[in-house]
Design a protein that fits this description.
alpha/beta; two-stranded antiparallel ribbon; globular
Length: 356
């Protein structure tokens, strides 16, 4: 009889020692200078530093010559950014890309250049110092600052900022659309409605993946007039797509097997309730409603989402959701929430159905 000796017990290798953490006083000093880090990222994005730095290491002088800046201040900017892993400086003093600095390149498929600019637009520097006022009142400080609402200000007084906003939202939507299309099972679905879907990148990704599905994009007229070219007349998906200009808070004139509501239930509770109520008013029993949102209790991205949550408080009086708060809103509207799944590190999908 052949016997098999047990494998020798494997002794796990010792884990590498964790890097020492800064003392609390040092860490707090770093945090209160957070504005300097944000400003440095913004400066690098506006100057295009990441775009001119290629695959070969370069000195600050070489980069400054291409950018038309003074070399010494550029060196100081790069040194500050390298402390956070955005660019790195070799022993010979030349700078190279890191995984984060590449995300500031406009041609990177995962570019965060416009997100970096959007989160540091000029109006943000006026709003952040009033966070204590917003916490006391529970509402936006924007009207007091600028004499009008946030979106009116963007479109009437801050055209450059509005452009950055549109570019940031487009980039973010294009990047997450692929993840949403991979996540959603469209078995048995013949019609999809993308509610408040912006330029329709999610819808376009779904229609490309599922050639038997038809879809409708609903958003404000000024938004859908710039819809994804694939969905517009002459586009590759136009025969299966319908574009409707309208406000989902007022009416949703669309019947579908599946409704997708992504990143629009965060402005305020009233608009959230109205939007969900309008879906329920039109949807057939058994229709699926998938709500996709960033969450403030979404552990991998809490530093980002809790910051966005505070920015929403400042500019529109809105709030990011927790799992519990979003389930509560959906249930109150009459939906039956069945499953919550991560889309990626930043987004969760809440699967629900319209009850019979």
């Amino acid at each position: 009889m052949t016997t098999v000796s047990p494998a020798p017990e494997t002794v796990p290798a010792a884990a590498p020692a964790a890097a020492p953490q800064p003392a609390p006083a040092m860490r707090l000093r770093e945090l209160v200078f957070g504005a300097a880090c944000a400003a440095a990222v913004r400066a690098a994005a506006k100057l295009g530093v990441a775009d001119v730095l290629g695959e070969e290491p370069a000195t600050a002088e070489q980069l400054a010559a291409e950018l038309g800046t003074e070399p010494r201040p550029l060196l100081r900017l790069l040194r500050a950014l390298s402390c956070y892993g955005i660019f790195a400086q070799n022993e010979d003093g030349r700078f190279v890309h890191t995984s984060m600095s590449r995300l500031l390149r406009e041609d990177d498929p995962h570019s965060l250049r416009y997100i970096s600019l959007w989160c540091t637009e000029p109006w943000t520097w006026n709003a952040w110092p009033r966070l204590d006022e917003a916490v006391r009142s529970g509402g936006s400080v924007f009207h007091e600052l600028y004499g009008k609402g946030f979106f009116d200000y963007l479109h009437e007084d801050a055209h450059d900022s509005a452009h950055v906003f549109n570019q940031a939202m487009t980039t973010s939507s294009e990047q997450s659309a692929r993840d949403v299309a991979e996540l959603l099972d469209l078995t048995g679905v013949s019609t999809v409605a993308d509610i408040g879907g912006g330029q329709g990148h999610v819808l376009a990704s779904l229609l490309e993946k599922h050639p038997g599905v038809r879809g409708t994009l609903l958003d404000l007229p000024r938004v859908v007039e710039k819809a994804d070219p694939r969905l517009r007349d002459g586009g590759s998906l136009a025969a299966r797509a319908r574009i409707v200009g309208g406000d989902c808070r007022e009416d949703i004139p669309v019947e579908a097997d599946l409704y997708i509501i992504k990143n629009i239930l965060e402005w305020d509770d009233d608009s959230t309730r109205r939007t969900l109520r309008n879906v329920l008013a039109k949807a057939r029993p058994g229709a699926r409603v998938v709500v996709i949102e960033n969450l403030v209790d979404d552990t991998p991205s809490m530093k980002f989402t809790t910051s966005m949550d505070l920015l929403l408080l400042l500019n529109v009086g809105g709030a990011k959701h927790t799992k519990e708060s979003l389930v509560t809103r959906m249930t109150e509207a009459g939906l039956t929430v069945e499953e919550i799944r991560p889309v990626n590190a930043y987004l969760h999908a809440f699967e629900s159905v319209v009850p019979a």
